Amino acid sequence: MRCIYTVCFTSSLFIASTAIASTSPDYDACLLNAVKTQNGTLTLSDIRSHCSDNIAKAAPVTITDPSQSSQSSPSLMSQRLQDERDNALNPFVITPHRMNYLLPIVMTDSINNSAYKDSQWGGKMKNAEAEFQISFKTPLNYDDLFIHNDGLFAAFTLKSYWQVYAEDISRPFRETNYRPELFYLAPTPWTPFEANTWITLGIEHQSNGRTQGLSRSWNRVYTDLIVEKGNFVLSLRPWWRIPEDKKDNPASPKGDDNPDIIDFMGHYEVNAVYKWQDYEFSFTGRQNFSTNKGYGELGMTFPLWGKLRGYTKYSTGYGENLIDYNHKQQRLGIGVALTDLL
């Protein structure tokens, strides 16, 4: 149906007013009062029209200009960052950093027995184990530092590998990695293909807290370019390893525990996350092109019950953790996740 804009606007205003009036307690009171006081000449239709007009004049009516398009909902990463900022001062909320999960069963095609050959666990570990990760962060500023919506954060991630099925060696935790870090995150004005972008600058320490022979650690400075559009996020994280002195002898507590770690871990990491309906898919990849050593990981979360989500992941290559930085294997695990990435 064609109509002049002012006529359509007036009709819309009348419909909106009538709808508001018909659901208002004042409208019901007006009807009751009119029935009691009218002289009998007004019809029921007249009374309804009279009350609708009176209530509509007093009620505020919000009209949406049809020439203006509705604002799109924020993308998932933007929404996560906003939620984190909103809850920063809540003492009962712990802000996740990386994913928090528990995999009760993880199968590997090659447990790293060579790293433990001189220990009481040598040759006795199982190819099945449990794996879990706890990761959180806290802001160090509650107002903007240099630009709008930037922030300085401290974070900590603990990832552990538990030989829970190795009863004959008392079910040890064969490896635990500790990752404290400090980083600055800021949005950038660059919007390729109408995407949002952020830049991160950080410093990170990673170690397994073991004695000599099993000790592994390194420190690195990194930057992270994050590109996000809708339900998809892609990040490129190059790093530079902070050099360490060489050991005087292999048993020395001082010096570099793993001088060749870059040969296997490379100089960068690529991460991608995509959320489709209530499923989240993730990818992590590293590669050192000069040594042809690398690592790839695929993950998926899915609805389970309430806030609990199912989580499964498959990985292949070098550097699953620090003790396995130079050990190649394939791993497949399934369990639950407490938090998603987006």
TrEMBL record:
<dbReference type="InterPro" id="IPR003187">
    <property type="entry name" value="PLipase_A1"/>
</dbReference>
<feature type="binding site" description="in dimeric form">
    <location>
        <position position="210"/>
    </location>
    <ligand>
        <name>Ca(2+)</name>
    </ligand>
</feature>
<feature type="binding site" description="in dimeric form">
    <location>
        <position position="170"/>
    </location>
    <ligand>
        <name>Ca(2+)</name>
    </ligand>
</feature>
<dbReference type="GO" id="GO:0008970">
    <property type="term" value="F:phospholipase A1 activity"/>
</dbReference>
<feature type="active site" description="Proton acceptor">
    <location>
        <position position="205"/>
    </location>
</feature>
<keyword id="KW-1134">Transmembrane beta strand</keyword>
<feature type="binding site" description="in dimeric form">
    <location>
        <position position="215"/>
    </location>
    <ligand>
        <name>Ca(2+)</name>
    </ligand>
</feature>
<keyword id="KW-0732">Signal</keyword>
<protein>
    <recommendedName>
        <fullName>Phospholipase A1</fullName>
        <ecNumber>3.1.1.32</ecNumber>
        <ecNumber>3.1.1.4</ecNumber>
    </recommendedName>
</protein>
<keyword id="KW-0106">Calcium</keyword>
<feature type="signal peptide">
    <location>
        <begin position="1"/>
        <end position="21"/>
    </location>
</feature>
<dbReference type="InterPro" id="IPR036541">
    <property type="entry name" value="PLipase_A1_sf"/>
</dbReference>
<keyword id="KW-0443">Lipid metabolism</keyword>
<keyword id="KW-0442">Lipid degradation</keyword>
<dbReference type="GO" id="GO:0016042">
    <property type="term" value="P:lipid catabolic process"/>
</dbReference>
<comment type="subunit">
    <text>Homodimer; dimerization is reversible, and the dimeric form is the active one.</text>
</comment>
<dbReference type="GO" id="GO:0005509">
    <property type="term" value="F:calcium ion binding"/>
</dbReference>
<keyword id="KW-0378">Hydrolase</keyword>
<keyword id="KW-0998">Cell outer membrane</keyword>
<keyword id="KW-0479">Metal-binding</keyword>
<comment type="similarity">
    <text>Belongs to the phospholipase A1 family.</text>
</comment>
<feature type="binding site" description="in dimeric form">
    <location>
        <position position="257"/>
    </location>
    <ligand>
        <name>Ca(2+)</name>
    </ligand>
</feature>
<comment type="function">
    <text>Hydrolysis of phosphatidylcholine with phospholipase A2 (EC 3.1.1.4) and phospholipase A1 (EC 3.1.1.32) activities.</text>
</comment>
<keyword id="KW-0812">Transmembrane</keyword>
<dbReference type="GO" id="GO:0009279">
    <property type="term" value="C:cell outer membrane"/>
</dbReference>
<dbReference type="GO" id="GO:0004623">
    <property type="term" value="F:phospholipase A2 activity"/>
</dbReference>
<dbReference type="Pfam" id="PF02253">
    <property type="entry name" value="PLA1"/>
</dbReference>
<keyword id="KW-0472">Membrane</keyword>
<feature type="active site" description="Nucleophile">
    <location>
        <position position="207"/>
    </location>
</feature>
